[in-house]
What does this fold into?
Amino acid sequence: MIQATSSDLAIELVGVTKRYRRNTAVRELSLQIPKGAAFGFIGPNGAGKTTTIRMIMGLLPMTAGQGNVLGINLNSGQDQVKRYVGYVPEQHFIYRWMRVGQVVRFCRSFYETWNDKYCSELLDLFGLDGHQKVKHLSKGMVTKLALVLALAHEPELLILDEPMAGLDPLVREEIVERVLHSICERKRTVFLSSHTLSDVRRVSDVIGIIHEGQLLTVAPTEQLVSGTKRIRAVLEEGQQPKESPEGTIWNRVQGREWLITVKDFTSNTVERLRSANPLQNIEVIDLGLEEIFKDYIRGAEVAA
Amino acid sequence: MPIDPNGPVPLYQQIADYIRQLVAAGVFRSAEALPSLRALAVQLAVNPNTVQRAYDQLEREGLVYARRGLGLFVAERGAELARNKSQEALYQTFMQAILAGKAAQLSGEKIGAIFQRALAGADVKARNQ
It folds into this structure.
């Protein structure tokens, strides 16, 4: 395998840790996101997603580790990052008393690369009017405005933290479409954190699952989906499982039924399982991303 | 929306199946162009790399061919290939169902009888539509 050089990477984190007094929010997280990739970041509430994003944005200092974003060292140039990254935070910071046009002019002043034409195209596209007061906008419209502000300076990297939370399906679809457009337009890197797994799957070519500050897996989206299987085995009367297969993420015995979810499934997985355990029969079940996500989290909770 | 982002089938596979169906049904005829990568990505709301992967697969199958700078076009035998492929897909679907039956300790005869019953049921359904 060819080792990616740092210039091919939009984001590189090595052993990044964030501790608050007794609590470790992010634990030795390492991640490489190539330029042009769309990365989906999923995990339960409080898993460390926003903390990770805030460290990537240079808004939060790390306790330990190294990081590089678009060639900027996070331990020395962290103040530079936000000028080059389009960021849609979970909590919109937009000043509620301002009018849309005022917000746009205000944000424009921070970016050398601001594109007025592109900005007004996006505002039109989303039906945002410069005279509207932000406090009179719906939640969906505020999110659209946040996305316009993130894209108008034509960043190489777009980071979205739970952009779809609390939005109706139509607005969500518009947001997803716009993000996909921005991937198509140029080789823009996208980092998307969301609980809406169907949207994550549509957008991302790589997915990372985080739980209690630790990355459980990082894999190409469709490899994660097609390579993770649940095996339903029936144990012989009065027998117990002897050996879980390699790559077991989660398993549970209930009566004679033994459910095992494995990653990187091959036909060998079944053969080995059969030869190592007293089983009557084996069924292999395909899983969607939602089930896969839940089994990773359940497995990590059992292990903890 | 022909794509199911919650299901277990890889999205590129779903897109390839969808295009094959359209070609088999004559929506895209031989020598006609497929939608561009970006147009289909936005239309289906999926990452363009996913569409690329589906298109690569269709090209390898010989269903479509690339013309430099112009995109992908349906091959002369495109419709025939698409229909053959759907037979293969049907075989795989039956195979899955049969394995599920075997796991439930059903005999081959029993599974065959259930298949006949389903076939008759489908005929009734088709007549009623």
Q: What stands out?
A: Chain B has a mean pLDDT of 90. The radius of gyration of chain B is 18 Å.
